[in-house]
């Protein structure tokens, strides 16, 4: 049994009387693509916020790479190799696609307290950034201002930025949300290529994508993990079927 | 002797705090409900003072002057809202700061244009002149007591309106979540106008009340505006209760600080050094106080937004 | 690319004008007046550029930047009144004091956001204003007249208006080059990133606070330098240097010139001060059809025209003067 890369122990979050994350235990193994699914309002995004450090947890612990990161701020977690993408696209619109990624590369290579020298001309940063852009198929659009990219391209850019922080684990919050068919195929393809190279936690509504990509799937219902298993077993799981009944005809 | 002096200063502090509250109440609602930073709120206070000066000179009576000044201040506030401010609600804070700064320049000069640069004085109304003995050896001007009473009355009225009427409910809801209120189908524009107009009138009322004890002059609203901002930031933007408590705190801290800081420092410093540091320190007190509050509670004591 | 190259001509043109102005001034016959006006323009240009670093590139609306003017000016004034008249001591002291004030107040202010930040920077500046007003030993409300302009390494060449003009121009150029480099550097890129999307910057591993605070300190120091120059230009130091209206004017200069371009701030400062200087005369000329009393009153109350101009610029001229220039180029 290998040590999990990410482990959640008894994680909890409540807003007043409403418990959004209820005693969640979850372990993500190194190298796997672990999908988290659940009906709308199951608390998936809250959980991602708690893992990434956008939201604090009421109780419970988050362990990453053998270290307790429960009380680390987001940027501290990123520097330890835990990166995330956002469900609502969150890029720097006035920066070019290349600069968006180069900035993330910069965060991981040397001090950013350098006051001289044109950062936009730093070869090492730009070349690395270009590589990540090629990885998600955005290289031809490198010089375009990120705000002018299409929605699908922005999602790909998110992915490239996430990769550029050189994470051990990448949290993806609905990377396919709002993308067209073509674009979503391209994102899935990219994820397929990344799979095995880095550990990925994927939250996604598109069940076709989830079942084709995931090594393991956890099902979140009303803030609780009701099952964690291989995609095949999840498909066959009665409890999961019951939870999804009437929600959508997917399983 | 010291006890009497302290009591007088405490009353002065209370009176100053209530005036601050009248100004801050409108400011905090405008801020909280519309997310609009209005530097020109201070000139509304000045306009109130000028209006009462003009109307009481015209009618020969402070009472009539006040009665005429209030609706005029309200109308003036609404006019500014329609002409300028409503075009700024969607802008960022920077634009709002600049445009309302322009309004200040205009109006400070405008009153000079109309009434001249020399300060005007407004006589204390006959019935409220003189002093009364409050306690042994403590004589206090009746007019200042009237200001305290009026301030408390308005605070109480405001409390009732904000917590027990439909408009008040909308205002409170708007301060904590404006998009939600407009999603409920409330005419948000009209709500804004009402809040704005009454905020302007309250500031005008404050200006009118202090006109007999201060000199009415251009720019008189500038420094008190900054204090009102300190008040609402300490109190928590959008919170009437916060504004009330913070206004009293600031009024007392400022007034008592100025009177007693040199004396208190004498305990640790030699007299001449104490009086010098005291005089230097006293006006800074409220800003130090504000910095301390914000250091521990970055969104004030009673934040309305969550 | 050609647009970018053409745009770079604007700062070159600005500095060429400032370099040529003294020669024209001596020909104009009113050289003392022209030199002192332009020296003021450059001093405010330095301060406005400093503000542009945090306002235009970091989206931090500091409403208390005049405080640094005051710190720089009072450092010169207080040291001079104690017999320390050399700029080689005064300027480092002013910079250190500005840096200290910026670091302390910035660390507190940056914990807050939005409107609270605007207000708390304002409050800190007010605090300093009242402190200066109560310093009886240094003139209190009335301010402090300098015995003479600062010496430089023992030499009193700044007494010459041309020399002071030259020194100010050198500071302006130095500040421009320094800030231009900072903005393009790794540090500057992070700062610009925090302006666009602060959460994103955290999500890629930056702690915005330390970058914003550093920018605030740099900005404060440069504005402090402008304060040293202002004291020398006016040969006088007073609390009026740091009123909140002055802070507002600095913001206005930056916005008028065009946020986030540095040279825009210089243009904005020039436009503002020249407008302030000549608006009364323009109004006097434009009011020829009015009777004498009204015409005089209009000229006297030129701010009544200035205020609405400000409002109109905010409402209708987005991007400031630099924005207009840029649009002109595209057409």
UniProtKB/TrEMBL annotation, chain A:
Protein name per UniProt: ATP-binding cassette domain-containing protein
| Record-annotated ABC transporter domain positions | 6-247
Q: Which UniProt keywords apply?
A: ATP-binding, Nucleotide-binding, Transport
The organism encoding this protein is Microvirga makkahensis
Establish whether keyword Coiled coil is in the entry: no
Q: Which SMART domains is this protein grouped with?
A: AAA
The source's domain of life comes to Bacteria
State the InterPro entries in the record: AAA+_ATPase, ABC_AA/LPS_Transport, ABC_transporter-like_ATP-bd, BCA_ABC_TP_C, P-loop_NTPase
Give the molecular function GO annotations.
Answer: ATP binding; ATP hydrolysis activity
Q: Is the tRNA-binding keyword given for this protein? A: no
Q: Which GO terms describe its cellular component?
A: plasma membrane
PANTHER family recorded: ABC TRANSPORTER ATP-BINDING PROTEIN, CONSERVED COMPONENT OF ABC TRANSPORTER FOR NATURAL AMINO ACIDS-RELATED
UniProtKB/TrEMBL annotation, chain B:
Q: Name one GO cellular component term.
A: plasma membrane
Report how it sits in the membrane. Answer: Multi-pass membrane protein
Spell out the InterPro entries in the cross-references.
ABC_transp_permease, BCAA_transport_permease
Q: Where in the cell is it found?
A: Cell membrane
Main location per the UniProt record: membrane
* UniProt-recorded Gene Ontology molecular function terms: transmembrane transporter activity
**N-terminal signal peptide:** none
Q: Which Pfam families match?
A: BPD_transp_2
UniProt GO BP: amino acid transport
User: Which residue ranges traverse the bilayer?
Assistant: 6-32, 39-58, 64-85, 97-118, 138-162, 192-214, 226-253, 273-296
Q: Which UniProt keywords apply?
A: Amino-acid transport, Cell membrane, Membrane, Transmembrane, Transmembrane helix, Transport
For the keyword Glycoprotein, the answer is no
The family note in this entry says: Belongs to the binding-protein-dependent transport system permease family. LivHM subfamily.
> What is the name of this protein?
Branched-chain amino acid ABC transporter permease
